[in-house]
Amino acid sequence: MNVFRRIDKIQAGIEKWTIITAIFGMTIILLANVFARTLGNSLTFAEEVGQFFIIIVTFIGLSYCARRGRHLKMTAIVEFLPFKVRKILVLIITFTTSLLLFYLCYISLDYTITLYQLGRVTAALRFPVYLITLFIPIGFLFSGLQYLRECWLNYKYKDEMIDGTEDPDWKREEADETT
């Protein structure tokens, strides 16, 4: 199980630093374009690069939100159900969501491969489009893994409701290490 924890920590680091870098880059590029416009010139590539960063933040952020349990949930009816029924629903929903995200990963990867084969490039920078769309299947893959992890944790801990937060065993081990 130690291998899965390491993989999860590596994935969490990749998500975090990718999102930080993309938001920072978007801020710099778009602010530079604002200043350039005040001088009478616009950076022709700024809008294109800003769109790239938005794609990256959106799809890698999808996984980050799933990891933190910050994704949208429709719990108004579910909260009134008995615990066992809620637990079964959570298992079904997280597993089905995981399968859907893996399928979307497959479709978006096929699309990215098609863009690669066609040799599509962006208008302003002449940058290969597939390198940007590659973040879409990566985001879906990471998100699918997070929902599968949440499904597994809910199956493993039958007496607790796990909603995308850390693995309870990890929290216990960290608490033991600090004492």
UniProtKB/TrEMBL annotation:
The chain crosses the membrane at residues 20-37, 49-67, 88-109, 129-148. It comes from the Bacteria. Keywords: Cell inner membrane, Cell membrane, Membrane, Transmembrane, Transmembrane helix, Transport. GO terms for molecular function: transmembrane transporter activity. It is found in: Cell inner membrane. Residues 26-152 form the Tripartite ATP-independent periplasmic transporters DctQ component domain. One of its GO terms (biological process) is C4-dicarboxylate transport. This is TRAP-type C4-dicarboxylate transport system, small permease component. It comes from Sediminibacillus halophilus. The lineage of its organism: Bacteria, Bacillati, Bacillota, Bacilli, Bacillales.
